[in-house]
Amino acid sequence: MVRGKTQIRRIENASSRQVTFTKRRNGLLKKAFELSVLCDAEVALIVFSPTGRLYEFSSSSTKKIIERYQRNANDLGTNSNKATTEENMRLTQRAKEEAATMMKKIQLIEDSKRMLMGEGLESCTTDELQLIEDQVEQSLRKIKTKKNQLIKEQVDQLKMQGRVIEQKNAELHKKLEIMSELPQPLHLPIIQEDVPEKSIIVDVETELVIGLPERRTVL
Fold this sequence. Notes:
A two-stranded antiparallel ribbon has the order 1-2. The longest helix has 56 residues, at 126-181. The N and C termini lie far apart (164 Å). By secondary structure, it is mostly helical. It has helices at residues 14-39, 62-116, 126-181, and strands spanning 44-48, 54-58.
């Protein structure tokens, strides 16, 4: 029959908890004894029950084993602190060395800059002066090359703008020629009629006749 895996948690029932404690305590003490005998190891085991009762096992003396443990713990702490201190000192020394190297490089750059500007040349030898002269000439060539490149780019840009302006002018001239060839609108003269200064007044004679109409002879 296969035993099920026991779930590790607090046993709520007090009687079962006490029975389990007794069994596990006896097994633990037995394992400690076997370890000390089989492996010739110094073993000390201290157990307090839930009620506060002390149970212990020691292969020699519990007090001596505890003192030995404390000494080793102190030594471990001291060694750890010592290792940390040595590491910090080593890192500090490395940082100082790197800072000194950087300062030397900065000083060399500053000296080279002054020499290129024509300062601090009193202690230079002929070879050093020749080297400085070569560096200056090389720098001048680079500067001239860059300057010519920028001028060429500006000229090309101006030429491109000029071509764009010429193209627009040509388009405007073409539009003007097309407009000049279109037929012009006719301008007809406006005829004004003479209006008489005085209007002709026509009198119409009217007559009322009572009776049969008479015949009139047309002349």
